[in-house]
Amino acid sequence: MRNIKIITALCIILMLSSCSISTFGKFQAAEGIPLFIQVGKTTRTEVLDTLGEPLVHRIVAGRETLIYNHERGDYFFLYGTYEGNELVLRLKNQIVVEARIEKTGSGWGFFAPATSNNPGTRRSAR
Amino acid sequence: MFKSVLFLWLICIFIVVFSSGCAKSSTGKVDLSSRTVPGFLKTGTTTIEDVLENIGEPFGYREQGNRSAMIYLSFQEDYFNLLFTQIRMEESHRLDLVFNKNILEKAEIKKEGWGFGANIDPQLIQLLAQ
């Protein structure tokens, strides 16, 4: 009888203690557009110096574009979430003329992690 | 005796409840699971700027002369787990947009892949997109 109680208690503790948090990317989407970025003022050099090399650097419709990604997954045994975002910066004459955050994905899991979209796994928006 | 049976039942219920689970996730800036092209896309009138404004930055982009192409990916995954049974359903779609002189010439949705109880290879999806 006592053994059953101990086993039950151990099971509960083990199950409730499983949790994880992981985050990938060079900016924090939850904090919004990085404060140092000021449209019309911030230069490409300042962006590269502060955030580092972007995930994507290309010309789209004649406009220089830098893309930084951020993915975050939380899991606290009972419930897990995942969210992916991108910081898209457009430049003109090496000055940031547009900055916005775009959502790339999301997910939830009940008694399970928010599936394989969690950061650290192979699948991601890019 | 009664207490022992009750505890055994509790343990069984615990195992069943805590070994089950479900999850749902999606990746991509536009939901293509309905396999219908977003309503604002009109051949002959929609521009690249319209698309960037409405959907956002594409997964893939390429220019060649007057022609350019955008690729958007959409991936949905459902996962269910009960005791020792796991069911995973995955579906992936791709929206191809072709522009000529900045005007939409073609919009097409293709089913990239699906999975049932097994993963779609994401590296293969990325290779196809590139």
| Rg calculated over all Cα atoms of chain B | 22 Å
Largest sheet entry of chain A: 5 strands, antiparallel
Number of strands of chain A: 5
Number of helices of chain B: 3
Count of extended strands of chain B: 5
Helix content of chain B: 10-25%
Mean pLDDT of chain B equals: 84
As a percent range, the share of helical residues of chain A equals 10-25%
- CA distance, first residue to last residue of chain A: 54 Å
Most extensive chain interface and residues per partner: A-B, 40 and 39 residues
Written description of the protein model:
The complex is a heterodimer of chains A (126) and B (130). Chain A has 126 residues and is an alpha+beta fold. Helices cover 18% and strands 44% of the residues of chain A. Chain A contains 2 helices and 5 strands, in the order αβαββββ. Chain A has helices at residues 2-16, 44-51, and strands spanning 20-25, 56-60, 63-76, 79-92, 95-110. In chain A, strands 1, 2, 3, 4 and 5 form a 5-stranded antiparallel sheet that branches. The longest helix of chain A has 15 residues, at 2-16. The radius of gyration of chain A is 20 Å and the shape is rod-shaped. The model of chain A is unreliable at 117-122 (pLDDT under 50). With 130 residues, chain B is α+β, with helices and mostly antiparallel strands. Chain B is built from 3 helices and 5 strands; from the N terminus they run H-E-H-E-E-E-E-H. The mean pLDDT of chain B is 84. Chain A binds chain B through residues 1, 4-5, 7-8, 11-12, 15, 58-61, 65, 67, 80, 82, 84, 86, 88, 102-117, 122-126, and chain B through 3-4, 7-8, 10-11, 14, 17-18, 20-29, 48-49, 52, 56-59, 61, 63, 68, 73, 75, 77, 79, 81, 88, 102, 119, 122-123.
